[in-house]
Write a structure and sequence with these properties.
The structure is a single chain. By secondary structure, this protein is an alpha+beta fold. It has four helices and eight strands; from the N terminus they run ββαββαααββββ. Helices cover 29% and strands 36% of the residues. The radius of gyration is 16 Å and the shape is elongated.
């Protein structure tokens, strides 16, 4: 069993940004010595999230609208009472989606469905420098 760890770094531009990082993760798998295993992705921080989605215009509109229904920006948040930084909803949304994702890879190819892409969600209210830790475990 071998472990290969790398980091993906990028800057986001705005709240609600959904970035397709599938190709970048696939390149990390391609560059490793591993053939089969699991790619575990993790976002350090409490206002970014990882998931999979069909990365197409309809869902890129639908997903933020669903998040607004689940954790509205204008709802009262205890976080605001403490920090007054305008991102209480960002923390709640990130917690609901989660900071990590595991994707198997077989014969150096991510085992994703035809219409399934790996995405990073910027949920904070301002641009951020982000890191995704990618750890490959396998043979």
């Amino acid at each position: 069993m071998t472990v290969d760890s790398q980091e993906l770094r990028f800057r986001t531009q705005r709240e609600g940004e959904i970035l397709d990082i599938t190709r970048k993760i696939q390149r990390i798998v391609d560059s490793s010595k591993l053939k089969d295993g699991v790619a575990t992705l993790f976002v350090p921080g409490s206002t970014g999230a990882l998931t999979t989605i069909e990365y197409e215009p309809g869902l890129l509109t639908d997903f933020p609208l669903a998040l607004e229904r689940l954790a509205p920006k204008d709802a009262p948040y205890g976080h605001e009472n403490r920090w007054h930084d305008g991102n209480g909803h960002s923390h709640v949304r990130a917690s609901m989606i989660g900071p990590d994702l595991s994707v198997p890879f077989l014969d150096k190819k991510l085992a994703l469905g035809t219409w399934q892409q790996i995405v990073f969600l910027e949920l904070d209210v301002r641009p951020r420098d982000r890191t995704v830790v990618v750890q490959l475990v396998g043979d």
